[in-house]
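// run 5 | inverse folding | seed 20
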């Protein structure tokens, strides 16, 4: 599965622009390692100013900075910021809380390197969206400032897929539920042994009052539409600043197809505006 995804995501129409600069990172930090890569397009600015921390998707078991380099490269170009794309530990070899710990460690490493929290926006897609949305409450519990904002693309909010199944059966009673069962099976190695109601698993049970501004993008016709809608609704109910953009009849994490889809390109422009709005450093400064 890992090999298949990397081959698919590095096809000519999805791979990174040739002008992309990539620098591999593997450093000891505190009680573990920070691994990943800096992805920078020309004009992206210094790494100690405004930065994106990107957390790739793949059901907590597949995906990598390399598979998502086409997307992170374009995010660097659109936001004019360096992107640190995290290579977190994946299940089944490393179940929860390995990925959670790696995201928090990478965020603390960026803070330690001199980047202020007000200039870090955390982005993630699918399972990476789950990890990105979960970071601010974890950072707060660790005594760290929360980032300037979070961007979640088709995020998983409930890895058990119970929320998705309820949404699917309510909106499309005749739709087969085996797709949600497959999603649950894919992600189960990550959360096996963790209570389904644990706030670090079911994100709507966490402390949403500490969340910074959040932009959630999803398709209006995917399995995780209900997760996106429910999360933003719960966030705004506690006084948060959550924005939901649903794009009509698109695939899961459609933003990867920005070269061939006008909607995907528009979505990346929306992300760039959001990042510029919530950060203290504006694009190109």
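// decoded
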């Amino acid at each position: 599965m890992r090999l298949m995804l990397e081959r698919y995501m590095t096809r000519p129409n999805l791979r990174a622009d040739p002008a992309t600069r990539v620098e591999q990172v593997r450093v000891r930090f505190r009680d573990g390692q920070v691994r990943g890569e800096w992805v920078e397009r020309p004009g992206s600015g210094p790494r100690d100013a405004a930065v994106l921390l990107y957390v790739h998707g793949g059901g907590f078991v597949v995906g990598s900075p390399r598979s998502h380099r086409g997307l992170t490269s374009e995010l660097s170009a659109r936001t004019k910021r360096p992107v640190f794309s995290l290579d977190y530990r994946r299940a089944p070899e490393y179940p929860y809380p390995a990925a959670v710990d790696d995201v928090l460690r990478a965020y603390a490493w960026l803070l330690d390197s001199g980047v202020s929290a007000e200039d870090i926006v955390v982005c993630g897609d699918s399972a990476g969206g789950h990890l990105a949305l979960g970071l601010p409450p974890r950072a707060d519990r660790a005594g760290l400032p929360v980032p300037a904002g979070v961007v979640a693309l088709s995020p998983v909010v409930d890895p058990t897929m119970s929320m998705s199944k309820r949404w699917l059966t309510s909106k499309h009673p005749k739709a087969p539920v085996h797709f949600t069962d497959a999603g649950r099976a894919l992600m189960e190695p990550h959360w096996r042994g963790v209570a389904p109601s644990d706030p670090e698993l079911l994100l709507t049970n966490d402390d949403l009052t500490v969340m910074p501004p959040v932009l959630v993008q999803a398709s209006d016709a995917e399995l995780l539409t209900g997760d996106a809608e429910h999360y933003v609704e719960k966030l705004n109910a506690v006084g948060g600043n959550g924005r939901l953009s649903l794009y009509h009849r698109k695939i899961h994490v459609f933003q990867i197809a920005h070269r061939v889809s006008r909607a995907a390109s528009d979505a990346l422009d929306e992300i760039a505006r959001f990042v510029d709005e919530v950060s203290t450093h504006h694009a190109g400064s």
